[in-house]
From TrEMBL:
<dbReference type="InterPro" id="IPR035482">
    <property type="entry name" value="SIS_PGI_2"/>
</dbReference>
<dbReference type="GO" id="GO:0097367">
    <property type="term" value="F:carbohydrate derivative binding"/>
</dbReference>
<keyword id="KW-0963">Cytoplasm</keyword>
<protein>
    <recommendedName>
        <fullName>Glucose-6-phosphate isomerase</fullName>
        <ecNumber>5.3.1.9</ecNumber>
    </recommendedName>
</protein>
<comment type="pathway">
    <text>Carbohydrate biosynthesis; gluconeogenesis.</text>
</comment>
<dbReference type="InterPro" id="IPR046348">
    <property type="entry name" value="SIS_dom_sf"/>
</dbReference>
<dbReference type="InterPro" id="IPR035476">
    <property type="entry name" value="SIS_PGI_1"/>
</dbReference>
<dbReference type="InterPro" id="IPR001672">
    <property type="entry name" value="G6P_Isomerase"/>
</dbReference>
<dbReference type="GO" id="GO:0006094">
    <property type="term" value="P:gluconeogenesis"/>
</dbReference>
<dbReference type="GO" id="GO:0006096">
    <property type="term" value="P:glycolytic process"/>
</dbReference>
<dbReference type="InterPro" id="IPR018189">
    <property type="entry name" value="Phosphoglucose_isomerase_CS"/>
</dbReference>
<comment type="function">
    <text>Catalyzes the reversible isomerization of glucose-6-phosphate to fructose-6-phosphate.</text>
</comment>
<dbReference type="GO" id="GO:0005829">
    <property type="term" value="C:cytosol"/>
</dbReference>
<comment type="similarity">
    <text>Belongs to the GPI family.</text>
</comment>
<dbReference type="GO" id="GO:0051156">
    <property type="term" value="P:glucose 6-phosphate metabolic process"/>
</dbReference>
<feature type="active site">
    <location>
        <position position="506"/>
    </location>
</feature>
<keyword id="KW-0312">Gluconeogenesis</keyword>
Length: 543
């Protein structure tokens, strides 16, 4: 789609339609259609999605689908699955979906049998995980591994830590995991302070194996390990494994490629959890559970690939997000998991959505004339209720929100889950329908307090419910959001798979690093603000 999407008849029709919707309240939409709460729902694999509490009519959905057709969404989706180089600025295929193809599938891309490559790495991961979990793989002094420390950042951290936390109820290998990402030395210090090097395994995860934070943390981990094991460098071989696309850099770091698990440049960092990047998750829950997670992903991939646009759940949810961003003026999007296990899910989604769609030029380099990239944020319910929900209920901003919950808890303690879920159901209802001035007054509220207690309602939410948080439903949920992101990216005509915007800061950090310690530092090319800040820092550090 070369032309500016805002000039299409489909976009213009949505603009006109948005003016009508602004006058409509969810109370009216529900009153006019008693079946709305059953009708505007969908299922994808084991996920039940209720989108009836969104600010949409059947006409809105029809117009949004027409927009998706106009921009050629189905063709873009097909291109991704086929291995076309849709990541044009890096000239790469985008094939995270191949990571979860069943063993029996076939896909050859750029002359390479992708399925065979993926399965070979999964097999090596599984063999390694079995040895560690069974105690067959021992450390340098013969002790079994009790703690795995995953060192990585961005996609090499957020996916694994989020999944590890999400699937803790399935952790059964006697191995616990910790995650170090920040180059702030406090992070690695805090992670290893109470550990015994003899029973600690470091998994260094970096697609490029050149990321400053990860290499600095990995070097410090190696120093700590060797010092703690009597200074014997040979210990590294039993306590360090790597996950990367670069054999050479792994070797240069001093990790034997025998102990390396590879992946490929067609897996974006933020899409890499189902690759070897998920090794720490596999060490925690075991290869069988990991396979169930991949099958969960695949079920949603298949739906996304084959379902018609109007019944395609990730497409529908992506289009709703476009609707709020571009036609109703939403600036942010809350994601509110009613599951403590998913407490890192919002942070994970921030990278997935914001690094993917935070772009301001189209695929051909033309500046966009419309907003892109949703700002995702959130906390698990019910903590959020006692923090920021006030603004969603009574503030002036439109904040569409996704509510995620599971009918069965992974720990059934008394009636606590019912109590918990009553909050989930209450919040979306309160947000949608609110409380009118008449209702508030009828409760005997003093007149001067009535305006303060009125709840306008009409705040849109989508409810996503599964029976239980399992590896399979977890994989389904992540795949759902991956494909929502692609849907938005295609409508906005941007490339969701590059991230040039993070490069400048990395380059500048490397350029500035010598100025922080050097005696005869050269400040010639540094702006006066940054130079003053660095000089002040140096004074405090006695340099
Ligand atoms: O933040 C930029 C980024 O390139 C992310 O896309 C990526 O997930 C992260 O850095 C880590 O990169 P790597 O896995 O190569 O260390």
């Amino acid at each position: 789609m070369a032309a500016d999407v805002t000039t299409t008849a489909e976009w213009q029709a949505l603009r006109t339609h948005a003016d009508e919707i602004r006058e409509t309240h969810l109370r009216d939409l529900f009153a006019a259609d008693p079946t709305r709460g059953e009708r505007l729902t969908a299922e994808v694999a084991d996920l039940y999605v209720d989108y009836s509490k969104n600010l949409v009519t059947d006409e809105t959905l029809r117009l949004l689908t027409a927009l998706a057709e106009r921009v050629g969404l189905a063709e873009r989706v097909a291109a991704m699955f086929s291995g076309a180089h849709i990541n044009a600025t890096e000239d790469r295929a985008v094939l995270h979906t191949a990571l979860r193809l069943p063993r029996s599938a076939s896909l050859t891309v750029d002359g390479q049998d992708v399925v065979a490559d993926v399965q070979a790495v999964l097999d090596r991961m599984a063999a390694f995980a079995r040895r560690v979990r069974s105690g067959q793989w021992v450390g340098h002094t013969g002790e079994r591994i009790r703690t795995v420390v995953n060192i990585g950042i961005g996609g090499s951290d957020l996916g694994p830590v989020m999944a590890y936390e999400a699937l803790k109820a399935f952790a059964d290998g006697g191995v616990s995991c910790r995650f170090v990402s920040n180059i702030d030395p406090t992070d690695i210090h805090g992670a290893v302070a109470d550990l015994d090097p003899a029973s600690t395994l470091f998994v260094v995860v970096s697609k490029t194996f050149s990321t400053q934070e990860t290499l600095a943390n990995a070097r410090e981990a190696r120093r700590w390990l060797v010092a703690g094991l009597g200074g014997d460098e040979a210990a590294v071989a039993r306590h360090f494994v790597a996950v990367s696309t670069s054999d050479q850099r792994v070797r240069d770091f001093g990790i034997d490629p025998e102990n390396m698990f590879g992946f490929w440049d067609w897996v974006g960092g933020r899409y890499s959890l189902p690759s070897a990047v998920g090794l720490s998750v596999m060490l925690s829950v075991g290869p069988e559970r990991f396979a169930e997670m991949l099958a969960g992903y695949h079920a949603v991939d298949e739906h996304f690939r084959t379902a018609p646009l109007e019944r395609n759940v990730p497409v529908l949810m992506g289009l709703l997000n476009v609707w709020y961003t571009n036609f109703l003026g939403a600036q942010t999007h809350a994601v509110l998991p009613y599951s403590q296990y998913l407490h890192r899910f919002p942070a994970y989604l921030q990278q997935l959505t914001m690094e993917s769609n935070g772009k301001s030029v189209t695929v051909d380099g033309t500046p966009v004339s419309y907003d892109t990239g949703e700002i995702f944020w959130g906390e698990p319910g019910t903590n959020g209720q006692h923090a920021f929900y006030q603004l969603i209920h009574q503030g002036t901003r439109l904040v569409p929100a996704d509510f995620i919950a599971f009918s069965e808890p992974n720990h059934d303690i008394g009636d606590m889950h019912d109590l918990f879920m009553s909050n989930f159901f209450a919040q979306t209802a309160a947000l949608a329908f609110g409380r009118t001035a008449e209702q508030v007054a009828a409760e005997g509220t003093p007149a001067e307090l009535v305006p303060h207690k009125v709840m306008a309602g009409n705040h849109p939410t989508t409810s996503i419910v599964a029976d239980r948080l399992t590896p399979a439903t977890f994989g389904q949920l992540v795949a759902l959001y991956e494909h929502i992101v692609l849907t938005e990216g295609v409508i906005w005509n941007i490339n969701p798979f590059d991230q040039w915007g993070v490069e400048l800061g990395k380059v500048m950090a490397n350029q500035l690093a010598p100025l922080l310690t050097g005696q005869d530092a050269e400040f010639a090319d540094v702006d006066s603000s940054t130079a003053t800040l660095i000089r002040r820092y140096r004074r405090h550090r006695g340099r």
